[in-house]
Amino acid sequence: MTETNIFTQYMQKRNMIVKNKKILQSSYIPQNLPHRDDKINEIVEIIAPALGKDKPSNILIFGKTGTGKTAVMNYVGKELRKADEQQNCCFIYVNCEVVDTTYGILYNISNQIITDPSKRIPFTGWSLDKILAEMTEYIDKEDKVFIIVLDEIDRSFQKNGDDIFYYLTTINEVLQNSKVSVIGITNNVNFTEFLDQRVKSRLGEEKIIFPPYNVEQLQDILYERAKEAFDDGVLDDDVIPYCAALSAQEMGDARRALDLLRMAADFAERNGDTKITGAHVRYAKSKIELDAVSEVVKTLTLQSKIVLMSIIRNTEDGMSTMTTGDVYAKYKIICEATAQSILTQRRIAGLISELDMLGIIHARVKSFGRAGRTKEIELSTPKEIIAMIKGDELFKDLESHKSKKQTTLI
Ligand SMILES: Nc1ncnc2c1ncn2[C@@H]1O[C@H](COP(=O)(O)OP(=O)(O)O)[C@@H](O)[C@H]1O
Ligand SMILES: [Mg+2]
């Protein structure tokens, strides 16, 4: 008999219904990219001259998140390497969200080119001029056409400006043997408005736009993945249409659609279910939404947290709805108890509107006759978020104080 252990139950539950978890992850590049043939062909036509050692035009690729830009680019890169029998090209991919300084980007590009470990550029310490000179020398020595893909370029731009694009698009002026083409990818459709005019025209020699996917396209993408990831009969018929419909509402984002499917499968497995159903998708949806709200709550300022805590406390005291004045009264008590400065009621009204806009609370404008207009405020926050706020370091003393004295004053 095999011994059981604390992980046995877990091991038995997992991999019951998903053949290969990797396939559902967003980093996986499928062999088939439905509904992107036209974009793949556009890119191939532009960069194909590199195989014959001619410099392709630079390209700017635009499209909302989850429209397949990264997947398509990596796929094209893989195929280019396969087709490049004479080794005329070098395809380099850098994600500027991960490597987000000018130094980091140059370091990353250079070390993809420099194969001798002793010659590699150090992680820090060199001047940009030095690293640029070294990189240029190595590129030229190779006598190849370099296609450098900079993904998520708006991230780098926000932090570093357009120096990197300037360096990489003007490098051809000093190269004798090799050539460099740049492909920039951005989620921000208005990105070029921020660029310097010269960089803008150099970088955007060719422009390609990736439109959002519609419901049917998202379904095809999911069916394609599901074929590889699941055995027959594991998915209820309504699962994929449901994931696709939810994500089509969210701007046609294939990443969101895949996240839903992957999480639904995870929930089914953990629950010991043998089939994935719409209920698992609904659960995945609420988990994703909760994660999004938690992210927002984490970034709230101290004062906003106190305002939210005031609304939580009033609700716990039996007020299902309250006015700005009610919130302000509790707010002042909490500020005193936590030794925080007290803002004016007007400022607090502003913070209440902000919380409303973030979807953390509900505030409706109500008319109260001659007293004028006031707001009717209601807590509409998931219980997990309420627990998160109450557990905040800021309110530690407040909570213990309350339980000790059993008072509803605070
Ligand atoms: N046409 C497609 N066919 C199959 N999978 C796709 C397709 N488009 C996007 N995906 C998948 O959706 C996810 C998000 O795509 P990604 O390329 O990262 O989007 P973007 O870079 O535009 O934000 C990835 O897992 C990707 O493999
Ligand atoms: Mg991407």
* CATH fold category name of the largest domain: Rossmann fold
Q: What count of helical segments does DSSP give? A: 17
User: Order of strands across the biggest sheet?
Assistant: 2-3-4-1-5
Class from helix and strand fractions: alpha/beta
Q: Total domains, how many?
A: 3
Instruction: Report helical residue fraction.
Output: 40-55%
- Going by CATH, what is the homologous superfamily of the largest domain? P-loop containing nucleotide triphosphate hydrolases
**Count of strand segments:** 7
How would you explain this protein's 3D organization?
The protein is α/β, with parallel strands linked by helices. Helices cover 50% and strands 11% of the residues. It folds into three domains: 174 residues, P-loop containing nucleotide triphosphate hydrolases (Rossmann fold, 3-Layer(aba) Sandwich); 84 residues, Helicase, Ruva Protein, domain 3 (Orthogonal Bundle); 106 residues, Winged helix-like DNA-binding domain superfamily/Winged helix DNA-binding domain (Arc Repressor Mutant, subunit A, Orthogonal Bundle), CATH 1.10.10.10. The protein has 17 helices and seven strands. The strands form two sheets. Strands 2-3-4-1-5 form a five-stranded parallel sheet, sandwiched between helices. It has a two-stranded antiparallel ribbon with strand order 6-7. A hairpin with a 5-residue loop joins strand 6 and strand 7. The C terminus is likely disordered.
